[in-house]
Amino acid sequence: MAGEFERRHGFPPGTNEVRPADRDDQTAARTLAQAGLIPADLVTFYDSIGDVTWADVGNGYFLDSAGDVLLRLQEHGAVGADAVQMVAIGSNGGGLSYVAGPDGSVHRTRTASLDEPELDKVAHDLRQFLELLEQSLMRFVADGKPGSL
Question: E strand or H helix at 46, and its extent?
């Protein structure tokens, strides 16, 4: 299977996994929740899922661990867009980031910078965002194209 992947895509397969949450992930999620910085559905997500790494789907799709989200927040602050404070939760591997708003919506940056970002809403809530990720994965498996997320 690895040989087929490399032949088809021109590079060997990388890490592709959904890592279960550990105690540190859950503690970081609760810290974020207590500070009112992430929506409830993201806290629920982080209670079960540590992080998502799909390095081989297009440029890749990555959902950061709650610990990484918390560390980025502590070091760089919230992502501000139109006076709404959001948190960066992942990236598409092509330099664009995904950020979650306090209302649960998920947005994608238009550029690689999180300083004064221009954002496009990609999902009304985390569930819709995860469904779009799943569709991107399924499309990539079917025809090698990762979709537009």
Answer: helix 40-48
Virtual CA dihedral for 21, 25, 29, 34, nearest 10 degrees?
Answer: 130
Question: Chain-centre distance of CA 82, in angstroms?
Answer: 21
Do 71 and 79 form a contact (C-beta atoms < 8 A)? no
Tokens 């021109």 belong to residue = 10
Burial class, 96, CB count within 10 angstroms (exposed 0-12 / middle 13-18 / buried 19+): middle
pTM above 0.70, yes or no: yes
Summarize pLDDT for 53-97 with one digit per residue, the tens: 998 888 889 999 999 999 999 998 888 766 678 899 999 988 999
Query: Which whole-number Å values give the CA distances from 25 to 49, 76, 79, 98, in the listed order?
Result: 8, 20, 21, 19
Tell me the per-residue pLDDT of 105-145, one tens digit each, with 9 for 90 and over.
999 999 988 888 899 999 999 999 999 999 998 998 888 88
